[in-house]
Amino acid sequence: MIRNRNRHKALNIEPLEGKQLLSTLHSALAHPDKAHVAPPAHAISIAGTIQSPTSSIRTFTTNGHNYGSFYFSGRVKSLGAINGAFVTALDTTGQFMSTGLMRLVGKRGTVDLNVQQAPGDKSSYVFTISMGTGAFASATGSGRIQSAGLTTNNTVLNFAITMNPR
Question: CB-based contacts of 4: which residues, under 8 Å, 6+ apart?
Fold first, then answer.
């Protein structure tokens, strides 16, 4: 009788919860003073202009609430050439933006803005930088986004971005 010496064991999945990867453990033990330290916050400027093709503007209703979105491109300080998207809640008429999130994407990282309609001005919005990635991971700042109107052929919506004084 020949026995199979190469018996295969049943596959078992080992739970990883609560375990630390050795590659990160070595670094944390070697440099305990540098482990899990966030970079210091630094103010950036995203003053500039953005343009949104009117063909990219979409509105939709979810759970009885109106929302809108659009894509844009432009040039702003600190990030340079950018593109991005804006998603916003709309007022009850579905015409004006109330609050939303705008993401600016540049070559060296992204910057997210929390945006709200400026008090008493339906063509202007105030924003605060909520987070960033890459070179902008610790970015801070706030300012205003002002509608600069449509192009003469009504195909592009223009905006100007200004920063609040620091």
Answer: none
d(CA 118, CA 41): 26
Please give the DSSP secondary-structure letter assigned to residue 136.
G
Total structural domains within the chain: 1
Residue ranges for the chain with pLDDT beneath 50: 11-14, 16, 19-28
Q: Is residue 141 part of a domain?
A: yes
Q: Say if CB 39 and CB 134 are below 8 A apart.
A: no
Q: Tens digits of per-residue pLDDT, 69-111? A: 999 999 999 999 999 999 999 887 777 788 999 999 999 999 9
Compute the distance between CA of residue 72 and CA of residue 7 in angstroms, rounded to an integer.
Answer: 60
Residue ranges making up the domain that contains 94: 45-163
Q: Provide the whole-model pTM.
A: 0.73
* Residue 26: inside a domain: no
- The domain that contains 77 carries what CATH number? 2.40.350
